[in-house]
C-alpha cells in the first residue's frame, strides 16, 4: 500500500463537501450527475439535500457525527500535494407520494368484504374498528364549543394567604393608636347600617335567655345599641367555637337564630366553603374565639375577669393567654384575680413558628 504525506488538513468551514449514501441501493458507475437542491435550516443550521433520480425524489438531512469525523483524502496529480478535507454524511431516502383516496377506497372495500363474506369474529373486529374511528373535525368542533362555554371565576383568596398572619385572627387593629378607644374601630367590625339592622332583628327576641353566664354578667348594666349587637356577636362566636364540626356541616345549621344578617356574616367570615360544603380549619376556630375576646373588651370598658372567663368557657388558661396577647390586651394580677386589660402600650404577641400550635 502506497504511503502518503499529508501536506494540508482542511477543517469544516461554511462550505464543505457532503458524502451521500442511498438508503435503497448503492452507487454504481452507471450513476449520472444530477442537479441537487441544498437547503439549510435557519434554526438548527443543518442542511438538507433533495434531488431527482430515476423518476424518484430523494431527500435526506445532514447526520450528526458524535463518535468521529469523516475525511476525504484528495491528491493533486500534477503537484502530488495531498490534503485531508473534512466532510459530512447524508443518507438520501426515496419519497413516495401516498394517494389518500386510494387508501380510503381500499379500507372501504375491505370493510364491505368483511361484512358480507367474513366470519362472525371478523365482522365483530371490523365493527369494533369502525366504532373506534374518530372524525378529527367533529372532535375539534366539540372541543371548541366546550372551551367557549368555560367561564373564569375570580375567588377571594385573601383569607387563605393571611391565615398564617396574626392579623387574620382579630379585627383590624391600630397598634399605633394614641388612645385605647382608637385601637379598634367599630366601623371596621360592623358598619353602622349593619349594626342598626342587626339590632332591629334581635330587638324583642329571647337572646338574653341563651347568653353564656359570663356574657350575661356583663349585661347586668344598661348597654347601648352597639354594645348589645357586639354582645350577641360574641355569644354567636363563642357558641360557634364550641360547636362540633358534624353539626356545622349540616345544611340547616344556623349560627345566629336571632339575626339573619349576623348569621350570614358569621358563616361567611368564620367558616370556609369548598365545593358547596362548609368547613372549619383550626385557624378559623381560633379566629372566632379571638374576635369574641375583642368584643368582650369593647363591651366591658376594655377589661374582663380572665379567671371567670376560662372557667365559664371550660378552657385552659394557657389556651386563652395566647389569644388575649394577640388582641393587644395585657394580663394584670389584682389580688387573687387576674384581669385581661387593653391598655397602652399594646401587648405584642410572642413570635411563633408556623408549624407550632396556636
TrEMBL record:
**One Pfam family named in its UniProt record:** RNA_pol_I_A49
Q: Which GO terms describe its cellular component?
A: DNA-directed RNA polymerase complex; nucleolus
Question: Which keywords fit this entry according to its UniProt record?
Answer: DNA-directed RNA polymerase, Nucleus, Transcription
Q: Name one GO molecular function term.
A: DNA binding
- Name of the featured protein: DNA-directed RNA polymerase I subunit RPA49
Protein family (similarity comment): Belongs to the eukaryotic RPA49/POLR1E RNA polymerase subunit family.
Q: Where in the cell is it found?
A: Nucleus, Nucleolus
Q: Which PANTHER family match?
A: DNA-DIRECTED RNA POLYMERASE I SUBUNIT RPA49
The major lineage groups are: Eukaryota, Metazoa, Ecdysozoa, Arthropoda, Hexapoda
Protease among the record's keywords? no
Q: Biological process (GO) annotations?
A: DNA-templated transcription
Say yes or no: keyword Transcription present. Answer: yes
Amino acid at each position: 500500500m502506497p504511503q502518503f504525506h499529508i501536506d494540508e488538513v482542511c477543517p469544516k468551514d461554511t462550505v464543505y463537501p457532503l458524502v451521500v449514501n442511498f438508503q435503497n441501493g448503492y452507487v454504481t458507475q452507471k450513476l449520472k450527475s444530477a442537479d441537487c437542491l441544498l437547503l439549510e435550516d435557519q434554526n438548527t443550521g443543518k442542511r438538507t439535500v433533495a434531488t431527482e433520480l430515476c423518476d424518484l425524489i430523494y431527500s435526506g438531512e445532514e447526520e450528526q457525527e458524535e463518535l468521529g469525523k469523516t475525511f476525504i483524502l484528495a491528491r493533486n496529480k500534477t503537484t502530488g500535494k495531498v490534503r485531508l478535507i473534512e466532510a459530512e454524511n447524508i443518507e438520501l431516502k426515496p419519497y413516495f407520494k401516498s394517494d389518500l383516496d386510494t387508501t380510503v377506497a381500499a379500507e372501504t372495500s375491505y370493510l364491505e368484504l368483511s361484512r358480507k363474506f367474513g366470519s362472525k369474529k371478523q365482522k365483530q373486529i371490523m365493527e369494533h374498528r369502525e366504532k373506534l374511528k374518530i372524525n378529527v373535525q367533529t372532535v375539534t368542533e366539540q372541543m371548541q364549543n366546550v372551551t367557549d362555554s368555560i367561564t373564569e371565576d375570580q375567588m377571594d383568596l385573601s383569607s387563605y394567604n393571611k391565615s398564617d398572619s396574626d392579623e387574620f385572627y382579630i379585627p383590624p387593629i391600630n397598634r399605633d393608636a394614641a388612645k385605647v378607644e382608637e385601637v379598634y374601630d367599630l366601623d371596621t367590625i360592623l358598619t353602622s347600617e349593619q349594626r342598626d339592622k342587626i339590632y332591629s332583628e334581635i330587638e324583642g327576641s329571647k337572646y338574653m335567655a341563651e347568653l353564656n353566664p359570663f356574657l350575661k354578667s356583663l349585661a347586668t348594666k344598661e348597654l347601648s345599641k352597639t354594645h348589645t349587637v357586639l354582645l350577641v356577636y360574641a355569644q354567636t362566636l363563642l357558641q360557634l367555637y364550641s360547636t362540633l364540626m358534624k353539626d356545622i356541616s349540616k345544611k340547616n345549621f344556623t349560627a345566629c337564630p336571632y339575626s339573619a344578617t349576623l348569621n350570614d356574616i358569621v358563616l361567611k367570615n368564620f367558616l370556609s366553603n369548598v365545593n358547596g360544603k362548609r368547613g372549619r380549619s383550626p385557624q378559623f376556630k381560633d379566629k372566632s374565639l379571638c374576635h369574641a375576646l375583642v368584643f368582650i373588651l369593647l363591651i366591658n370598658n376594655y377589661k374582663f375577669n380572665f379567671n371567670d372567663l376560662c372557667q365559664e368557657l371550660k378552657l385552659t388558661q394557657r389556651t386563652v393567654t395566647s389569644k388575649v396577647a394577640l388582641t393587644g390586651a395585657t394580663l394584670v394580677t389584682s389580688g387573687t384575680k387576674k384581669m385581661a386589660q387593653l391598655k397602652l402600650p399594646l401587648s405584642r404577641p410572642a413570635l411563633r413558628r408556623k408549624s407550632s400550635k396556636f
